[in-house]
Write a structure and sequence with these properties.
heterodimer, A: 11 strands, B: 453 residues, six-stranded mixed beta sheet, 12 strands
Chain lengths: 427, 453
């Protein structure tokens, strides 16, 4: 192996306490830079939404910045900026999080802001109407007005059967328009309980002091009931699915080719992460090299293992070179998948992927924010923030045979969904 | 324990110091700067070639710097493009050579354990690139095809039109080379550009990682120290762009758009100016983030947009002030009017005292955030070298921001932000928004085909 054996050190300490109201607190001291990230992750994402209520989890994320009992409208932004911090929130299918990265001496401010809105968010019709419009603009900006973006919604709707992952995080304009203040209040009471959340503090802090401060701000947040566990159940796959999208903004065709695969942390998903990189990562990824560089069939190709708590998606998305039909891209992708299923990765590819995973883990945990997010995800999804380290060891021990077997087992026709995207005038 | 009811004050500020770069100059003329930074076993490295950006494109050869950067990884004397890619991927290293307007920058990210092997490959790419004809042709075909795809993106169309009008006839006005320009280029143009403009004399290799700076310098010397002295053309080959006068609107018709994408820009200030900190503080109050005036009024109060921001762009030969807002087609008049009115009021009156203090606090407190990683401090050093800034530029930056008075911020805004002079680029459905724009000023209609449509 040209790179030699992998040797690396990556220790991320994580200390855990549970408050009486159910809130889990994780503290990770990261010395060196006087910064701290405060992250509160709630165990709620768009997957819990029902038909007619899509987009609500994300719309609610916006409302969380509109003021609480002791923080006026717009004040959250101003307080964080005045302290020299940055902040945001994000919503995915599987969770919602809120975070501030602040000078370490401003830790209390982050804890104050997060505890105040966890305890007593102030919701009004005016705020709801205002943020409804902001979210509609976000949808127009990121999806409706962009080439290819709407076709991702079609691809997800085609791949999944259960409503949980079948609809988009940002939702439909009609549903956003119909969202009511009662919906918001119910949502808050149900999902924004301390027992349904995890507070992560990562940065230049001493753990005992960080826990003491966390208790000072969060101990009096009243316990509320924890929502019933939610599981995404998909029926067994039966046959390949196909759809076409006519895209008013696209200049050239594109193709989505997705396989519905296992839940995150399934051992086969660790193996499929090798398949993802052998085919698509770096300048030497097999399929990327062939489609984009050598045969000049695609302008771009993304191979991505979209890990979800329920069934994940192994995604291929390619934008065609002018004159190349989606059908040609599909045939080429399937040919490379078939080769990988028959032969598996080479020893050199396996070592390369191990090194890419190692380097990725090292580079992806260089900031307090990234560390907080990593620990929050494992803490909320799995109840153990330290599980990431075991997963990293496990993924690094995957063998080529397992990769081949996983490709044979999961990247099969019955699990496949294909969306051809064509410019509107050519449709 | 009772709830805390008021925002808690900060504790005493904790010290934060930037790393000190240790330096050497190799026989080839390549300067090297290295610093210990970060806690993870990874190294960020970059070589900046000042002046070797699109401003150095030979006459009639737009896109030369761009395509040269793209073609560097096309192969070396001993490796094909594929072998080079495999060698980098074997190390999980990332290497890239890319041209901007003012410079070409080559970057390398590598694990500390692979530093020697990574730097050896990096040196091979930069000194032994052969620019094979086939790889040049492939790269050019890819850029031409990508142009067609980019023309469906509203942000690209808006930037293309804005820069073309803000810097007419100047290399700063080109966001992407045209198909015609790309077809006129030859492989020899690219090889010649690399030989003339990307010589090590005048270039600097900057490294940062958790390793000892002496070890980083030693590794750089092992990889680059044996190369002979080189010479090439340095500096800028074009004069600064002329400043645009008047106010004009340029509408790119994108039928079917559900939004209008609006960009505004006017000439502003060079990075080297002693008034730059005041301009940065003023811009922060106006549109630097979610706590700033544009965002607060246009999104939080008026629900016209997902976001509205302003910024200062700095090139070596010029700088400009810009602002942006995207809005649904139906509220284009309110959004553009609101944006320009807010900028005009701010230019006339400057920041409120509370805005001014908040902006300074934000800039001071957030200073470490982009500098958490080795890549962050490498970027500082690249910026310093490119703009010819003093060695203490970033170590004294916060002191200079702290010293900016509200009057200085107001004066900077009055001089640099006034929208009476400037360019508006709008991308949207002309059938619906043309009359709205024409009511605001002289409006020229363009299609999406390119800068000279």
């Amino acid at each position: 192996m040209p790179g030699g054996p992998i040797s690396f050190e990556l220790e991320i300490p994580a200390h855990v306490e549970h408050l009486a109201n159910g809130l889990t607190v994780v503290v990770s001291p990261q010395r060196g830079i006087p910064l701290v990230t405060v992250d509160v992750t709630y165990d709620v994402g768009s997957r819990v939404e029902l038909p007619g209520k899509t987009g609500f989890a994300h719309l609610f994320e916006h409302l969380m910045f509109e003021g609480s009992e002791n923080v006026g409208k717009g004040e959250h932004f101003r307080l964080v900026a005045s302290a020299g911090g940055t902040m945001n929130g994000t919503t995915s299918e599987d969770r919602t999080n809120y975070y501030e990265t602040l000078p370490a001496e401003c830790l209390d401010l982050g804890l104050f802001l997060e505890s105040d809105r966890m305890r007593a968010l102030v919701l009004t019709q005016e705020k709801l109407d205002n943020q409804r419009e902001a979210v509609k603009e976000e949808k127009r900006l990121r999806i409706d007005n962009q080439p290819y973006a709407p076709s991702f919604e079609t691809a997800d709707a085609l791949a999944y059967d259960a409503f949980a992952y079948k609809h988009s995080v940002i939702g439909s304009m009609d549903d956003l328009g119909a969202a009511s203040l009662d919906d918001a209040r119910r949502f808050y009471e149900t999902y924004y309980a301390p027992g349904n959340a995890l507070l992560a503090i990562a940065g230049d802090v001493e753990p005992a002091e960080a826990f003491r401060r966390a208790r000072a701000f969060f101990d009096d947040v009243p316990a509320r009931g924890k929502p019933a566990p939610f599981a995404v159940v998909e029926p067994p796959p039966t046959a390949e699915r196909r759809a076409e999208v006519s895209d008013a903004h696209a200049a050239v065709p594109a193709l989505h080719l997705n396989f519905k695969v296992a839940d995150r942390r399934h051992p086969d998903l660790f193996a499929l992460s090798y398949a993802e990189k052998v085919l698509g990562a770096g300048e030497s990824g097999r399929l990327w090299r062939r489609l984009v560089k050598d045969d000049e069939l695609a302008l771009s190709l993304t191979v991505a293992l979209d890990e979800r708590r329920g069934p994940s998606l192994f995604r291929f998305f390619a934008i065609a070179r002018p004159g190349v039909a989606p059908e040609r891209l599909e045939a080429e992708i399937l040919a490379d998948v078939a080769r990988l299923a028959a032969e598996g990765p080479t020893p050199r590819e396996m070592e390369r992927v191990r090194r890419v995973i190692t380097a990725g883990a090292i580079r992806a945990t260089q900031t307090t924010q990234a560390v907080a997010f990593l620990l929050s995800e494992y803490g909320v999804y799995d109840g153990d923030p330290n599980l990431w380290r075991r997963d990293l060891d496990e993924v690094l021990s995957v063998e080529a045979e397992h990769v081949r077997d996983a490709v044979q087992r999961w990247l099969v026709a019955a699990r496949r969904s294909v969306v051809a995207v064509r410019p509107a005038e050519a449709a | 324990m009772s709830a805390v009811r008021v925002p808690p004050p900060p504790g005493p500020p904790l010290p934060f110091s930037l790393p000190r770069f240790e330096r050497t100059v190799l026989p080839s003329g390549l300067a090297v700067a290295a610093a210990r930074w970060g806690s993870r076993p990874t190294v960020a490295a970059a070589i900046v070639f000042p002046g070797a950006g699109s401003t150095a494109d030979p006459p009639g050869r737009d896109g030369t710097a761009d395509v040269t950067g793209d073609t560097f990884l096309g192969g070396t004397r001993t490796k094909t493009a594929r072998q080079l890619a495999e060698a980098l991927d074997d190390l999980a290293a990332v290497a890239d050579v890319s041209a901007g307007t003012d410079s070409t920058v080559a970057r390398l990210y590598v694990l500390e354990s692979d530093l020697d092997a990574g730097l050896a490959l990096f040196a091979e790419i930069l000194t032994e690139a052969t620019f094979p004809e086939e790889e040049f042709d492939k790269g050019r075909r890819r850029l031409i095809a990508a142009l067609q795809e980019q023309r469906s993106e509203p942000d690209f169309l808006a930037r293309e039109r804005l820069y073309d009008r803000l810097y007419p006839g100047h290399p700063y006005g080109t966001v992407s080379p045209t198909e015609k320009g790309l077809l006129a280029l030859t492989r020899d143009d690219v090889a010649d550009f690399a030989r003339r403009r990307l010589s090590f004399a005048g270039a600097t290799l900057v490294l940062a990682g958790a390793a000892d700076p002496g070890a980083l310098l030693a590794a750089a010397t092992r990889a680059f120290g044996g190369l002979p002295a080189t010479s090439g053309e340095k500096g800028f080959t074009v004069p600064p762009p002329p400043r645009v006068g008047g106010f004009s609107i340029h509408l790119v018709n994108r039928p079917g758009s559900v939004q209008t994408n609006l960009l505004f820009a006017r000439p502003a200030i060079a990075r080297r100016s002693p008034r730059f900190p005041a301009a940065v503080v003023a811009n922060q109050s106006l549109g630097g983030g979610a706590s700033s005036r544009l965002f607060h009024v246009l999104r939080e109060e008026r629900a016209l947009t997902y976001g509205a921001y302003s910024s200062l762009a700095t090139r070596v030969l010029a700088g400009h002030f810009g602002a942006s807002i995207d809005c649904r087609t139906e509220v284009t008049a309110e959004a553009l009017g609101g944006l320009l009115d807010l900028i005009r009021a701010f230019a006339a009156e400057g920041p409120l005292a509370e805005e001014h203090e908040r902006s300074k606090n934000y800039l001071l407190g957030s200073f470490p955030i982009p500098r958490e990683t080795p890549g962050g401090v490498v970027q500082d050093e690249l910026t310093r070298l490119l703009h010819g800034l003093p060695e203490d530029e970033f170590t004294t930056w916060r002191d200079r921001v702290r010293a900016v008075t509200r009057e200085e911020a107001r004066d900077a805004a009055a001089e640099l932000f006034d929208p009476a002079t400037g360019i508006v680029a709008a991308v949207g459905d002309a059938g619906k928004i043309r009359p709205i724009l024409e009511a605001r000023g002289e409006t020229t209609l363009w299609d999406a085909d390119g800068p000279r449509a």
